Amino acid sequence: MKLDAPVTGGPCWTELGTSDLDAARRFYTRLFGWRPETDARQEAGGYTVAHLGDAAVAALAPLYQPSQPVAWNVSFAVTDADATVRAVTEAGGTLLLGPMDVFDVGRFAVAADPGGAVFQLWQAGTFPGAGLFNAPGSLGWVELMTRDPEGAVSFYTRVFGWTVAPSDRYTQFGIGGADFGGMVTMDEKFPPEVPAHWLPYFAVADVDDTTAVVQQHGTVLMVPTSVPDGPRIAVLRDPQGAMFGVYRAGDEA
Hints:
Elements: E1 11-18, H1 21-32, E2 35-38, E3 48-52, E4 55-62, E5 71-78, H2 81-90, E6 94-102, E7 106-112, E8 118-124, E9 139-146, H3 149-160, E10 163-165, E11 171-175, E12 178-185, E13 197-204, H4 207-217, E14 219-226, E15 232-237, E16 243-248
Parallel strand pairs: 1-4, 5-8, 9-12, 13-16
Antiparallel strand pairs: 1-5, 2-3, 3-4, 6-7, 7-8, 9-13, 10-11, 11-12, 14-15, 15-16
């Protein structure tokens, strides 16, 4: 990711909704060396922020409603959540939750693009988003998995003003040309029951070692692979079923 801090329109945070918060804390602490801190306020509902040193890097939270899937979610920074929600619906997306205030830390909403991929909007208050990107254990890339790539490009460029770097192999999204993510077209290799979704990638020191740890407790969906002219990556699933990617820190992602 060519961004190293939250930027309007870019990914600023990622959080896990999980069916077993205690197990997720143990798994990701072992995997990434996180230091989790749970908000003690009852109204926070067990929301847990993971840190590397003093930097907040991600969050873990219980499922707040029965229909919520176990999954990692990606948040994009906006200056006005309400205005962005209007842009989302005008572009053919769907509002799923909010906008709503979260104490004094910010205002957020949950939406889905026309292809069904869910994402979050974050209007910063006292909390701008992750304090560290691209370092081992932190967010370093986000990837859209979609069955409608042309519709996705039209939607996200209209809503966020993203720049698009297309290629025959892989389309990348950016802010002013600073790429932060990409897009994969879901073909027949993807089971029909797998919905369109956003997938966060975390930087790690060694993709193979990280994958070996996950094999003991979770699932390897894509074995460590060196992308031509790109990073070494793997796609993994935690014990509760949430998918995420990892890539070798220092590689261009």
